[in-house]
Amino acid sequence: MDVAEVDLGKLGTAVTDWKKAVDNLKTLASSADTGMYAKSESARWDGINASVTRAFVKKTRKEFADAYAQANTIWSLLDDAHGELVAIQQKMRNAVEVEVVDLGVKIEDIGDGGVRWFFPHIRGDTDERTQEQLDKAQALADRISSLTVHAMEIDAAVTRALNKAHGADSHNFGHKTYDSLDEAQTERALELAGQGTGITDKEFAELNRIMKYNARDSDFSTAFYHGIGGPKEALEFYGQMSLNGTEGSDKDRLALTKDLQRNMGLALASATDPDSKSHLPASWGAEFRKLGNKELVLNQGAINAPYGYQVLGGLLRYGNYDARFLNPIAEHIVQLHHKDPDKFMLNKPDTGGADLDYGFNPSGKTGAGYDPLTSAMEALGHSPEAAKKFFSEGTVPTVYNEDGTVDKSKSLDYSYFEELTGKDFKWSPDSLEAPSDEAAEKARSFGPDALGHALEAATTGHAWDAATPVLHRDEQTSEIMRKVVNLYSATSDVAPHDEMRDSLGRMGAAYIDDLNYSIKNFGGSGDELNRDALFAHASDGSSRTDFGEDAALNFMMVAAGDEEGYQYLSASQQVFEASGLSVFEGDQVRGLSFADNASKVHGIIDEARSHQIREDFKDPEEQRNLEEEKKGEWRKFGVSAGVATVVGVGTALVVGPAAGVVVATAVPLLMETGGGAVNTAYGSHTLQYLKDNEYKNDHEAIQGVQTHEHIAERGAWIPVSNYADVIGMPTEKKDELITRIEQSYRSGKDMVEELEKVN
User: Fold this and answer.
1) Which pLDDT belongs to residue 645?
2) 514/516 Cα distance (integer angstroms)
């Protein structure tokens, strides 16, 4: 917290003063070299005095040079520290002076970078807070704590480096020199890493702090990996640290190892980006491929030796990787899996069902880390440009030999999209659990989950779990989405794995405008009625893609049938509809045409969920299965006539920023002009529109609307009702409007019902 108040002006003055000293000492050192020393060396002196004088001049010349070098080191360290601290202070001041005040929360410093937060009591206040407020307070406190710890680490790093630069001899210049704070921090990180598994928890925490705040700096990350050694040494270091940290039940060590996994992954991503000023040579990628299919001896005498790809996979799970580095590795892994799906599972250690996190994925997310294919998909899920190229039809796959070298004589007879989404594709059970049927089935779910993440990145242009996702759609991403829409269809014989249905929901939300656009084509009338003008200006500046009316319907039926997918599609539909209606406030004809179509889409989404609920609970035994209630909040009032009550999700959440499911999902909006593109989940005008016209999902509202159909219908009507009020529509016209909207809504439901009958 002191970071916000400390006077960095004094440090800035010191930087300026040291720069002057550096310049002056440079002049003196140069003069000593070209003047005094040069004359001494060229003089024709004889005798003892000549030898003594020459030695003295030579030593004096060195001291001038050392003084300059030491001053330059001090200036470089202070200058870098000042720049970083100023940036941290600006962020801290905004957090404590603006965000804390706006949220109405109090933040207190508890020492060592820790903070605690609370909402102060105000007389007359109930002290009740929404979950959204609590989450924001915690996130804000975490960010303030992180900024404080970062500032503390810079202070410690500078102090440590200055001590080395000054040395133990106060009568001599010429000790350790640094060109930057990065160089000093890299040196310390490598000192700590050099201890390997013998590193103490305190030292481990220091290593993680240094890496956390420098991993994305290519100067640091490149020097770090060079310092570790080559690709083989990097894998050996991480592999040994990972096994050491995941073995046994030491939770503190495991937490430190999780941080190391993330930090080394982020550092590898920045170090292997060819466009960075500092980066590792391309040979590192080729060497990783060579090592990937070889067993790597981490511990002498160990029964199981992992393959290089199993160890590398733990690192690839974090970081936005350049396609030139990641894709050849991902392609090689897919091709190895195609030849032998069980290859990498045959060397898993047998822990007898214990120590299930032992391995190369300390995070524990989507597998134990023995299946490199799952790791590669997670890597693509965080690397949108690489994912786009990987799944694009325009990319010609390269064929790789077993050792990772390129085989130019062959061509691949399958696409990666077709291979990985094939009906009979065999995913590996990436788990150390005992191989029971139930455990194996669960373990095979990690791969499809990761595949969903990779497809999200490929279609949306942002990492699947981005905290603030921003859409980057283009022709390639849209064509990949077209393949997704056509494959995961109510009429397809390929059903999506349950674990990737949430990804389908988020992809649908990212293309909700194109789904609406595709539906507005009854009888092929889309062009005739100029639907392009209705959907002209997307917030990300993209052009509309027509998936086809049937394809869009069939996809939404699959995606919205899932509870989580329904939440994303329903909430995003209302946000998108509200954005369009806000644009057409001055154009009632287009506004009502847009509302008609949006209501039809609402009907499709809602009926798809209703249909799945009826399917899930058509059997009396299934109705009594209380485990289903734990899957979400939608079943709170029991089951009646085969239809579950839906409360707290989807349309009941809307319409406004409080719909938490949308906050973390990038939803395209309609904008008033093409030039006003806004690459964010909400446009400023729409945000205010939603705040002003929010449907309050309070207790009384829920009590009055207790069935899925009624909640869904209200969600479809409210945005249109708001629009009618905004444009000043009289009550009698509004009465006619609700009939029109109901017909459109029922039309959407009928489309799904007809498809149900066919199926």
Assistant:
1) 20
2) 5
Tally of CA atoms within 13 A in the half-sphere of 459 that contains its CB: 29
User: Whole-angstrom Cα distance, residue 185 to residue 153?
Assistant: 10
Alpha helix locations (H) across 273-421?
283-292, 308-316, 323-339, 372-381, 384-391, 416-421
Asked if 501 and 455 touch (Cβ cutoff 8 Å), the reply is no
262 and 208 in contact (C-beta within 8 Å)? Answer: no
Q: Compute the C-alpha angle 62/68/70, nearest 5°.
A: 100
Q: How far apart are CA 411 and CA 415, in angstroms?
A: 11
Q: Please tell me the distance from the alpha carbon of residue 237 to that of residue 231, in angstroms, as a whole number.
A: 10
Alpha carbon separation from 445 to 201, 361, 439, 537, 702 (Å, rounded): 34, 16, 10, 39, 35
Identify the bridge partners of residue 400 per DSSP, sorted by sequence position: 406
Q: Give me the pLDDT at residue 628, please.
A: 43
Query: In the block, which residue shows the tokens 């010191």?
Result: 14
CA distance 289 to 617: 49
Report how many helices (DSSP H) and strands (DSSP E) the chain contains, helices first: 31, 4
Q: 61 pLDDT band (50/70/90 cuts)? A: low
682 vs 27: CA distance, rounded Å = 57
Of residues 297 and 439, more confidently modeled: 297
Q: Are 154 and 181 in contact (CB under 8 A)?
A: yes
In sequence order, which residues have a C-beta less than 8 Å from that of residue 451 and are 6 or more positions away? 377, 420, 421, 497, 500
* Residue at token pair 């009396």: 620
Label residue 50 by pLDDT band (50, 70, 90): low
Gyration radius (Cα) of the chain, Å: 31
Q: Which run of H or E residues covers position 117? A: strand 114-118
Task: Give one DSSP letter per residue of 543-554, joined into a string.
Answer: PP----HHHHHH
Average pLDDT, the chain: 79
Pairing of strands 106-111, 114-118: antiparallel
For 181-207, write each residue's pLDDT tens digit: 788 889 999 999 999 999 999 999 999
Q: How many CB atoms lie within 10 A of CB 337?
A: 23
Backbone conformation region of residue 648, classed left if phi is above 0, alpha if psi is from -120 to 50, else beta: left
CA distances from 313 to 265, 326, 525 (A): 9, 11, 50
The Cα–Cα gap between 644 and 650 comes to 14
- Give the HSE-up count for residue 496: Cα atoms under 13 Å, Cβ half-sphere: 30
**What Cα–Cα distance (Å) separates residue 619 from each residue in 230, 354, 615, 623, 644?**
60, 37, 8, 6, 13
Nearest residue to 631 via CA among 622, 642, 641, 621: 622
CA atoms 141, 143, 146, 151: torsion sign: negative
Joined together, the tokens standing for residue 5 give 């108040």
Burial of 555 (0-12, 13-18, 19+ CB in 10 A): buried
d(CA 707, CA 644): 7
In angstroms, rounded to a whole number, what is the distance separating the alpha carbons of residues 180 and 623?
Answer: 66
What is the three-class DSSP state of 377? helix
Least confident of 175-179, 412-416, 468-472: 175-179
Specify the amino acid at residue 248: G
**C-alpha closest to that of 438 among 429, 447, 427:** 429
SS3 432: coil
pLDDT of 662 strictly over 60 = no
CA triple 172-177-181, angle to 5 deg: 135
DSSP per residue over 249-301, as a string?
T-HHHHHHHHHHHHHHHHHHHHHT-TTSSS---THHHHHHHHHHTSB---STT
pLDDT at 275: 95
